[in-house]
Amino acid sequence: MRTMTRNDLMLLLGFAAVVLAMPIWLQPFGAAYPDLLQRFMIFGIFAVGFNILFGLTGYLSFGHAAFFGVGSYAAVWSFKLLSLDAIPAMIFAIVISGVFALIIGYLSLRRSGIYFSILTLAFAQMSYNLAYSVLTPITNGETGLQLTINDPRYLDRVFGDAMPGQPVPTLLGQSLGGFTGFYFCAAFLILTFFIAQRITGSPFGMMLKGIKSNQTRMNYTGVNTRPYTLAAFVISGMYAGLAGALMAVTDPLAGAERMQWTASGEVVLMTILGGAGTLVGPVLGAWIIKYFENIFSALNDSILARFWSFLPDGLDHTAVVVSGKFVGEGWFLTLGLVFVLIVVFLPGGVMEGVRRITTLVSPKSKPPASPESTSPQPQPAE
Amino acid sequence: MTQPNVVLHVADVHKRFGGLHALADIDLQVEEGQTHAIIGPNGAGKSTLLNVIIGKLAPTSGQVVFDGTVLTGRKPFQINQLGISRVFQTPEIFADLSVLHNVMIPALAKRDGAFKLNMLGSLEHESAVRAEAEHMLEDVGMLSSQKDRAGSLSRGDKRRMELAMCLIQHPRLLLLDEPTAGMSRHDTNTTIELLKKIKSRGMTKVIIEHDMHVVFSLADKISVLAQGRIIADGTPDQVRGNPKVQEAYLGGEVV
Amino acid sequence: MFDVIFLQFLNGLDKGAAYALIALGLTLVFGTLGVVNFAHGALFMLGAFCAVLFRQLLTMETITIDPTQLSPWGAPLEVRAPLVQAWFGDFGAVLVNYSVPASIIITIPIMLLVGIGLERGIIKHFYKRPHAEQILVTFGLAIVAQELIKSFFGPNPIPQPMPSDLRGAADIGAFLGMQANVITYPIWRLVYFLFSFIIIGGVFAFLQFTTFGMVVRAGMADRETVGLLGINIDKRFTIMFGLAAVVAGLAGVMYTPLLPPNYHIGMDFLVLSFVVVVVGGMGSLPGAVAAGFLLGILQSFASMTQVKALIPGIDQVIIYLVAVVILLVLPRGLFGRRGVMEA
Predict the structure, then answer these.
(1) Considering only alpha carbons, which residue of chain C is nearest residue A113?
(2) What is the pLDDT of residue C56?
């Protein structure tokens, strides 16, 4: 592999440093506990992968949660049948979700624009409905797929290290709970970020951007767009499968609700919120949504009452009632409002906001040289 | 003179849209290295003819042959890979990308073919392609704006860039659909100069044009289309003197 | 065998009618405004909650404590007096009984306001923006709407009783001269079907026979030309959005006795309705209606035990399967016009 440019290398190193130091710098924010950090990593990977499809080619998939769910199921089955080690589970999940994405992508990419969105949505809903009904032998229906002591685990049995007690996923014999689990996921996030960076900067990535920008010109330039979009679709499906597998590693239970279309919608929100088409944006979007989901869901009326207690009597009560609508169970209301505001006023997401602020602060500095990084607006793939 | 080598042969093409006979009995031979203009009043079927050649429309009957290969029924990208590039009436460019990248994409497509999973390379290290693109931009006089966003260019610049995007593929046949439509006199003249410049490279060109000034400055051969039929065919001088042509142009616009 | 098939056919009608009504509104908005409205299901849901709200208003009571009377436990007796009876007397009781159809009175103005407000406030800024952004903003609006409803009405379904006179089943078989009690059909479903027929007929008549409708139809066919004629098409399109909202809302109101509404009922129907619109052909009103009934009936057949035994799980996926097949084989849907959202 040829060396990277200096900027890319700096970005990668900076990103890795930020990620690995999360247990430290998130302490003041009250978010430095493993469970949440793992989710930051997992949904970061999911969003980075989604962006390879949506951000680069402009094809808006509304069914990516299906690949996430397939990854989870595949990983849990690997734990059950093969080994409790995470590595075979990851490989198995990526392969299975890749095959799944190949089939769905091959069919869905025959259409573009809204038809593509609806095809992916239809496939995801089919998977979800089937997972709940006839596929119960594979998915264990509503209960979700779990590990049991009686699972065969043929590989583990061959090597004779059958663990006593409740089975948990491991890495080379090491338990993956707590911060070990976080660093395991973090390694994958950095790796997948690196791959996404390479793809974006490669001639292949350039072709994807061309497809997003003007598919007609692409056709008359002698490019067969379908294999390009299919490759992007499969890659992003494998990313989703990887994220789903990591979810199963940190919490070995796979349920069909991970495949529901609201879950597909969530990754779209993350990508848009952060900034579709940018490298860092989707990860930021995932972190922001997961962070505030965590904070807002935990808030309740008594915390709010303490917060508003400085207000005069009566008024503080109103403030508690009104703000109470937006936290706890009402977190999704806040999310929806923020999302609408973002799409209306800042279609480039947080990354565009950051850029606007920097140009405001330093009016002398020239706009960034490469224009595609300044216009991450999602375009329909038509 | 050696035997003229016919590169593009439109053979007995008919095109019907419902009851409308858009193209009737079109037989057209374009010789290698020549600039062949197709002119005609509005609604004569010029754009339909171009779309049939490029594979966007299927002819009702007849076929289009390019250098021994039948184009009819092929997809646009396959036709391009055979060596045919097209300039559109409204420039089809990658508006979100930089001017340099706009020109690099066709160069990569020429080098890598219709599909190549070129994921490990880096665009930063494609120095040969980059140099070629920069050279091409210099040729069309746009090197200084290579970092600009293509969508923000003036219409004339968009056209020049689109031309560069086609030329960098070294096509054997270049199709131009009203390359100066909607342009100012100044932009039109620069475009003519540019087209004259590339004419000397021996590339075959088919040009559809409204503007007689453009046509007579560039064409080696002219076919006149009226109501879906070719009514005259020949060198600029032959066509200029043809009474049928003058009649088609409403009592003879002085050309 | 015939009666079984006929029964399944009937069973598909009410669901099909709901699909048709939602898809009709979706298509109106898409055809006139060119907007892909993911918030349309939320409008259906809002309509359903208009019925809930209306009933809650009707059943509000004043509770007074009458110290002169004692309950069997010796505590002062609470006297509950429904406000509606205080205002309307006996008519109040009738009103409570017919609360679902009666709530149409408040549904129409509310939905009209919601629709026009949405269009003027947000949607109109998205006409020129890419479809992906339209999907995203309306998706966000749908989340907001459903979460608002959730925070005011709670997460659980709220059953709405149908009027007592319309409960029970009609013996359609006997009516058609067949054996009695073989084909019976709940009366309310019949009412819903007829209701949808009236609404659909009304919308079509409105578009067909009024000047307003003519302009809108012309606008659907070619927006720019009509704009050139100097007709204020934008204002008419705003009203169309309001109309679509009303149709969705009414579909929601009347569906409440069949399916107790909860906050995510709209999303459940939206996904299916998009499938319906696509199957019918984007931008085709007759297509939306036909596909709505077709898919409702297909779904009903797919849930027959004999069919399920043949193809397990078919009832869960039939609609999506039809959508996928239609999209791949007939990309323009059953009735789609050329050039609409052409891929």
Answers:
(1) C343
(2) 85
CB contact under 8 A, C148 and A333: yes
- What is d(CA B16, CA B61) in angstroms, rounded to the nearest whole number? 9
In this prediction, what percent of chain B has a pLDDT beyond 70?
95
| Helix, strand and coil in chain A, % to nearest 5 | 70, 0, 25
DSSP A170: E
Domains within chain B, CATH numbers bracketed: 1-83+171-255 (3.40.50.300), 94-167 (no CATH)
Angle at B165 between CA B163 and CA B171, to 5 degrees: 85
Contact B86/A220, CB-based, under 8 Å? yes
Chain A interface disruption, residue of B77, B110, B152, most A CBs within 10 A = B77
- A337/B1: higher pLDDT: A337
Q: What is the pLDDT of residues A58-82, one digit of tens each?
A: 999 988 999 999 999 999 998 888 8
* CB contact C127 to A (< 8 Å): no
Calculate how close chain A gets to C34, using CA atoms only, in Å.
Answer: 12
Give me the mean pLDDT over the A281-308 stretch: 84
What ipTM was assigned to the predicted interfaces of this complex?
0.88
Q: Which amino acid belongs to residue C57?
A: L
What is the architecture of the domain spanning C2-329?
Orthogonal Bundle (1.10)
Q: How far is CA A183 from CA A33, A38, A87, A112, B120, in A?
A: 12, 8, 14, 39, 26
pLDDT at A90: 92
Alpha-carbon span A292 to A52, nearest angstrom:
25
Preferred mutation among C156, C327, C340 to probe A, highest tally of A CBs within 10 A: C327
Chains C and A contact (Cβ–Cβ under 8 Å for 3 or more pairs): yes
Q: What is the spatial distance between Cα C162 and Cα C187, in angstroms, rounded to a whole number?
A: 10
Is the confidence at residue B105, as pLDDT, over 90? Answer: yes
Question: Which secondary-structure segment (H or E) carries C269?
Answer: helix C265-280
The answer to whether A36 and A294 have CB atoms below 8 angstroms apart is: yes
Q: How confident is the model at residue C343 (pLDDT cuts 50, 70, 90)?
A: very low
Q: What does each C-alpha distance from A344 to A372, C38, C126, C137 come to in angstroms? A: 21, 15, 8, 7
> What's the pTM value of the predicted model, to 2 decimals?
0.86
